[in-house]
Amino acid sequence: PISVPSLAMEGRGSVMEDTAAPGQTEGVPESRGAQSMAGQAGALVERSPIPGGLALVSPYHTHRAGDPLDLVALAEQVQKADEFIRANATNKLTVIAEQIQHLQEQARKVLEDARRDADLHHAACNMVKKPGNIYYLYKRESGQQYFSIISPKEWGASCPHDFLGAYKLQHDLSWTPFEDIEKQDAKISIMDKLLSQSAALPSCTEPNFQGLTH
């Protein structure tokens, strides 16, 4: 015969086993779920039970993923950082593109000036051209272009040929149109002053923005 107390103990044991089983497994899915979400987000720091050689009181509470919204915020922060980096690179590339465009424009002008200077040097001339002098370009009925030291004003109404323009021969054998002579002479004067004072300039190893703020 089975006594009542023994049945009660068996029943109590089964109840304890039933209640203990969920308690033993409740924490496992929660931690594994958090680790799974952290793994999907990427960019999470690996767990260390002894960070810096110091044992943690509760590694679970220290390393757990916590609120899933934290992972969303982390992903948004990474995305925002990517957008800022892309915008910053775009701005720098835009500046470089503008500089390239400016250099291309300067190169085009250099080629045009070189072609003009070459054509002027091939114009007919019965004298030795000297740098610093102004010469006047005329065109005959035959199409020949030639240089003369006589200006249209000096010719007056008896100018025999079509006047094409006046040019000053620079010391680098380049030609400056008459309307640009004053501006070009001012630039050359400034460069001459800088070259004459270069020996007295102190050596400077750091950037100097003097004169840019005034």
Automatic annotation (TrEMBL):
The keyword Coiled coil applies. Residues 1-41 are annotated as: Disordered. InterPro entries: DUF2452 (IPR019534). Pfam families: DUF2452. Keywords: Coiled coil. Residues 86-117 form a coiled coil. GO terms for molecular function: identical protein binding. This is Chromosome 1 open reading frame 50. The gene is C1orf50.
